[in-house]
Amino acid sequence: MKFQRQIKYYYLRFIRLRGEPHELALGVAFGVFSGMMPVVPFQTVLAITLSLLFKGSKITAALGTWVSNPLNWYFIYYYSYRLGAWIIGLPEKNAVFSSVMTAVRSGEAPMIIVGKIFGAGTAFISAFLLGGFILGIVFGGLCFFIFLPIFKYIRAWRQSRKERRNWRIHAQ
């Protein structure tokens, strides 16, 4: 029963988000973009900064970074590097890459993983960042176009509920 109650709580929090649909969707897009970047300890800061600069919702930006979580870091890092390495022309697999992926799989602290990435050299870092940037643009853009109609629908639904409630009050 607790799980259902928690789901309902988060559902209600989601539909009660304040702001224009465009702002809210833009915040989600910046959050997802930042979540795809292999800079784990700085993802939320990056998402909120982008939202401040481009007038997106800071709350949905922070929520959007949750796309990156311990359950899928491995996949995000793996495909970020593979894509970036392919574009730059680096070998897809090497000892440093294997070391980083082992650290991610074993659940090491984010700062240790970031330290391994930065200790690997500029070409390695460039591959990770380039791949993460491209994945972020793709998935962030998709999320914007997915969430914009959702937030518009929620806004229209809330407005119609408010009008029905006002009509009932005045009808009495």
Helix-strand layout with pairing:
Blueprint (H helix, E strand, L loop, with lengths): L1 H14 L5 H16 L6 H12 L3 H7 L8 H16 L6 H11 L4 H9 L3 H50 L1
Q: Can you tell me about this structure?
A:
The chain has 172 residues and is mainly alpha-helical. It has one domain (2-171). Helix content is 78%, strand content 0%. The protein is built from eight helices and no strands. It starts with a helix and ends with a helix. The model has no long low-confidence stretch (mean pLDDT 84).
What share of residues are in beta strands?
under 5%
Q: What is the overall shape?
A: elongated
Largest sheet: none
Determine the N-to-C terminus distance.
Answer: 38 Å
Low-confidence stretches: none
The strand count comes to 0
Structural class by SSE content: mainly alpha
Report the C-alpha radius of gyration, rounded. 20 Å
In short:
The chain is built from 8 helices and no strands. It has 172 residues and is mainly alpha-helical.
Describe this protein with a few key phrases:
172 residues, single chain, mainly alpha
